[in-house]
Amino acid sequence: MAAKTPQMKKASATPAPRSQAIDFPRPYTTVDVVIFTVLDDALEVLLVQRPSGTMEPCPGQWALPGGFVNVDLDVDLMACARRKLLEKTAVSSPYLEQLGSWGSATRDPRGWSATHAYFALIPTQDIQLAKGANAADVAWFKVDDLLKRPRLAFDHSEILQTAVERLRSKVEYTSLPAFLLAEPFTLPQLQKTYEVVLGRAVDKSGFRTRMIAADFLEEVGFVESSSNRPPMGYRLKDRSAPVFFPRTFSPRGGD
Is 214 exposed, middle or buried (0-12, 13-18, 19+ CB in 10 A)? Predict the structure, then answer.
């Protein structure tokens, strides 16, 4: 066997320890979370108001909740997203999906930055909003109003637009709206949530048939109602992932 050349020896050397100084500039690394819910028959998103100090980027503007990756607390990006979500809403286990990454030398006036965005779906019940140390206020905003007049801090309007498009596209063929409801819920409540997110009506008979045939719901008994005939309550059999349907929804009048 031929002897190793000096170049081969160098290539197989033990990797440098993590404590070795990094000799190149590093970008800011953050995680932002687009948190959706349904309030008053409208799709809404949670925003935080940035501090008004003169040294703050985008002072006083509304932004998506998020922050810097904490290497001592966050084992990965998903862990950072869950930590930020918990800090803002006190909800620890909603539906959470990675949306994409945004990075440039101009998106943050403090310097080159990259953010990894996620979107979350949570029911409004039991949410406890918290401002956090770096927010002047926190509130829910109607998504459609924000899309008409993009004005969020940094590039968050673009991230929100992408999140809404992703959500509405996937709702056409998945069970995602069920994650926006507290359990137990009824089929009429689930259909209404689909219609709120999609922004249009869907056929009632076809909807019921599809929900039952997909076999992702389980009955939990009748729930209280003002109707003489109490409706059946349902919950998800599996909250770890949505169910995919073989075809998209049709508008009211056919499915």
Answer: middle
Angle between helices 204-213 and 187-198 (to 10 degrees): 110
Neighbours of 13 (CB within 10 A): 7
d(CA 193, CA 178): 8
Q: What is the distance between the alpha carbons of residues 143 and 140, in angstroms, rounded to a whole number? A: 9
Using only C-alpha atoms, the chain has a radius of gyration, in whole angstroms, of 23
Query: pLDDT confidence of 9, banded at 50, 70, 90?
Result: very low
Contacts 24+ apart (CB under 8 A), 157-163: 158/102, 159/32, 159/34, 159/64, 159/99, 159/100, 159/102, 159/115, 159/117, 160/34, 160/45, 160/64, 162/99, 162/100, 162/117, 163/34, 163/36, 163/45, 163/99, 163/117, 163/119
Reported as a single tens digit per residue, the pLDDT across 56-93 is 788 889 999 999 999 999 999 999 999 999 888 888 77
Lookup result for tokens 């290539």 = 11
CA distance 115 to 101: 6
Read off the tokens for 57. Answer: 């980027």
Indicate the pairing of strand 113-121 with strand 28-39: parallel
Q: How far is residue 170's CA from residue 244's CA, in Å, rounded to a whole number?
A: 9
- Please give the Cα distance from 101 to 120 (Å, whole number): 16
Our measurement of the distance from residue 187's CA atom to the centroid of its chain's CA atoms, rounded to an integer in Å, reads 24
E strand segments, the chain: 28-39, 42-49, 62-63, 66-68, 95-104, 113-121, 137-142, 217-222, 232-236
Contact present, 72 and 157 (Cβ < 8 Å):
no
What is the set of domains in the chain, with CATH numbers? 28-170 (3.90.79.10), 173-236 (1.10.10.10)
